[in-house]
Write a structure and sequence with these properties.
Distance between the termini: 51 Å
Bound molecules: pyridoxal-5'-phosphate
Number of helices: 14
Mean pLDDT: 94
Shape: globular
Number of strands: 14
Radius of gyration: 22 Å
Low-confidence stretches: 1-9
Largest sheet: 7 strands, mixed
Structural class: alpha/beta
Helix content: 40-55%
Length: 395
């Protein structure tokens, strides 16, 4: 906080929707990489991050890449997805999920989400399977795991792959198992709004060695990484045998992400405390409804998203909140409503979430006093939006 910030009274202070939690350890890690001279991707810090992510998830392989979107793209390519294929995608998600399917020349087939957890509805996924379906992409919505047991059974029965978009899911658990161990391949994000961050970044994790190798080669133009080639005394001339991209994570980012991964328990606990305080205040009231945590889940609380009561107009609520210095946003997107996908899919639950959800401040640095200010400001904003409509409601 700068000297200027301290002059603001507590009630004037802007409460951010999201903000990363960095400290001296991240700074020291960056300084070390700068001093080492290896700042590009696929160096020693990247290898350390990959080993730590694989260990965290309890799987054999991890590949660090430049974003979760790149992770999704590479995973789908490595799984063999191409033109003519259909991939079932959870509708309520950031459109990176559907975009990655389009990057492969394949067609995303959007399936609706559950009304309680807002994760992919296994029945909707089953109903979307057709002769061209090759796989299913589930999403850990706002940090809550999808129904991986049911989806895994469905995928195996039909010979499909199951990919987890766990961009928001780092640290989440499902029936005692961590996100990253629940599907054939899992993609995490290290973007600034996620539970741990290096600014931008992503990680692919899988138990399938061949899949991991295919992802790794394609993250670096389609050649073996420089780190592996360096081990040889010979002048090795790389061979470009498959088409790849430049999706590498820089060593600066890997070093920051590695520190953040070490702090994951502390960061998760701070978010869980904020969520518990919000939920306690909102539960049982007739105002905004708190999110539901499904049976057997540990939520990672990447975002805290409330559902506004029916008939309460979200725009005025958001304006009142922002005027009170409380940032807010929509939840996420109903993919089938985005013109880029040119689909006539029907996903009414997702459409309702898209219209009524409101994300309120959630990060590991929020104080109890800030959380209480958000709760009060939200209640006032919803009351104001209701009284605006009261005359019509009475008539
Ligand atoms: C944030 C997010 C992405 C995109 O992650 P990037 O690392 O920014 O590419 C994809 N899917 C979901 C569900 C997300 O929340």
């Amino acid at each position: 906080m700068s000297a200027g910030d301290r002059n603001l009274s507590r009630t004037d202070e802007l409460i951010a929707l999201a903000r990363p939690t960095f400290g001296d350890a991240e700074l020291a890690a960056v300084a070390e990489v700068l001093a080492s001279g290896w700042v590009a991707g696929q160096g020693p810090r990247g290898a350390d991050l990959e080993a730590a992510m694989a260990a965290h998830c309890g799987v054999g392989h991890a590949v660090a890449v430049s974003s979760c979107t790149a992770a999704l793209h590479l995973s789908l390519v490595a799984l063999g997805v191409g033109p003519g294929d259909e991939v079932i995608v959870a509708d309520y998600t950031y459109p990176a999920t559907g975009h990655a399917v389009l990057y492969c020349g394949a067609t995303p087939v959007f399936a609706d989400v559950r009304p309680d957890t807002w994760t992919l509805d296994p029945e909707a996924a089953a109903a979307a399977i057709g002769p061209r379906t090759v796989g299913i992409v589930a999403v850990d919505t706002f940090g809550q795991c999808a129904d991986y047991d049911e989806l895994g059974t469905l995928a195996r029965r039909h010979g499909l792959f199951l990919l987890a978009d766990a961009a928001a899911g780092i640290g989440a658990r499902y029936r005692g198992r961590p996100a990253g161990s629940l599907a054939d391949v899992t993609c995490f994000s290290l973007h600034a709004r996620k539970g741990i961050t290096s600014g931008e970044g992503g990680v692919v994790v899988t138990d399938d060695a061949a899949l991991a190798a295919a992802v790794r080669a394609r993250s670096c133009f389609g050649v073996r990484p420089a780190r592996e080639r360096e081990r040889s005394d010979e002048l090795e001339v790389p061979v470009f045998d498959v088409l790849g991209w430049n999706y590498k994570l820089s060593e600066l980012q890997a070093a920051v992400a590695l520190v953040q991964l070490g702090r994951l328990p502390e960061l998760l606990a701070a978010r869980a405390r904020v969520a518990a305080r919000y939920t306690e205040a909102l539960a049982g009231g007739d105002g905004p409804a708190p999110p539901t945590v499904g049976e057997g889940r540990t939520h990672a609380w990447q975002s805290y998203v409330v559902t506004l009561p029916p008939g309460v107009d979200r725009g005025p609520v958001a304006r009142t909140l922002r005027a009170a210095g409380v940032q807010c946003n929509i939840g996420t997107f109903a993919s089938h409503r985005q013109p880029v996908y040119r689909t006539d899919a029907r996903c009414p639950v997702s459409a309702d979430c898209f219209a009524r959800h409101l994300a309120i401040p959630m990060h590991a640095g929020l104080t109890d006093a800030q959380v209480d200010r958000v709760i009060d400001a939200l209640a006032e904003a919803v009351d104001a939006a209701r009284s605006r409509h009261a005359p019509e409601a009475v008539r």
